[in-house]
């Protein structure tokens, strides 16, 4: 009877969560937001897009501050649950919506995916975010600001190249798209288009990106396809 009751509770919770619409606070050019859009697309989860124009300072509004006091996108709202930071959001989606897993069952491959995601989330993207580069540009000039970003991006990409070169197949850790790929695809796109990084230095990552570019889920989540995109 206890097992049956527990199963019924899980079923009710699942039905309740599936009926509530996810809200994603996003900015079209944000690579962090792109990761979450990509993950939602892979999992087939519909959501309502809530644009936050960080160039106009909309992230500093009182309403958004209540969602994330750090004033960063993305933020995911799922009913009464609010989750900020793309890494935390993807972990939440894995737990709450296990369909189309973004982490493999194998412990070694799972660790590789988490490590790759963490390198991008903690050691690459924060060093080229808009607020950091704007501050540096004001202090030392635009050339030094760009050089700082490029140097740190290349350092991180080299670490990823070394981490994944012996495990990569069609995708970062095999023939399925996992969390490492969800973080890698937007990061490589931004690195090449916004910061003019020469990806020939990173042959494994370059090959992976060619596989990413043909994924319909990546295309659907790309910056240019978002309702707040400036064309």
Automatic annotation (TrEMBL):
GO molecular-function terms, A-Z: glutathione transferase activity; maleylacetoacetate isomerase activity
Keyword Transferase listed: yes
PROSITE patterns xrefs: GST_CTER (PS50405), GST_NTER (PS50404)
Any GO BP: L-phenylalanine catabolic process
Keywords, sorted A to Z: Transferase
Catalytic reaction annotation: RX + glutathione = an S-substituted glutathione + a halide anion + H(+)
Annotated GO CC locations: cytoplasm
Enzyme Commission number(s) from the entry: 2.5.1.18
GST C-terminal domain residues: 106-231
Annotated ranges, domain GST N-terminal: 20-101
PANTHER family: GLUTATHIONE S-TRANSFERASE ZETA CLASS-LIKE, MALEYLACETOACETATE ISOMERASE
Family to which the UniProt record says this protein belongs: Belongs to the GST superfamily. Zeta family.
NCBIfam families, sorted: maiA
Name of this protein: glutathione transferase
Organism: Prunus dulcis
Species lineage: Eukaryota, Viridiplantae, Streptophyta, Embryophyta, Tracheophyta
